[in-house]
Amino acid sequence: MANAETTKEWKKFFESKGKLCEVIDATKNSCKTAVFCLVNKATKAKQEKQKNKGILGKIRIAIVGVPNTGKSTLLNTLGGARSEERRVGKECRSRWS
User: CA 61 to CA 84: how far, in whole Å?
Assistant: First the structure.
């Protein structure tokens, strides 16, 4: 569990650099809305550009961070994995096409 004060300081830091930032609990399904809204806001210009060209493509994003910070938990929550399907520390390697 992250320290709330430290988290607030990091949020302020990234926002001061002009970055979009949202504090979420990756174990809760309610984080989906916040993440999808943030991704839409961050990629709005690219989506509009593709739409104007008649391209209905996908937007690729990367979730990066130091080990044991909840990246897989976030992906599992966004992907709708049930809690019994989640295996901490047992990520499978993805093949990017």
Answer: 26
Does pTM top 0.70 for this prediction?
Answer: no
77 contacts 36 by C-beta, under 8 angstroms: no
Write out pLDDT tens, residues 8-30: 999 999 999 998 888 888 888 88
CB 74 within 8 A of CB 35: yes
Nearest to 56 by CA among 70, 46, 42: 46
How far is 43 from 46, CA to CA, in rounded Å? 5
Answer left, alpha or beta for residue 23, where phi above 0 means left and psi between -120 and 50 means alpha.
beta
In terms of DSSP H, where are the helices of the chain? Answer: 4-16, 31-52, 71-79
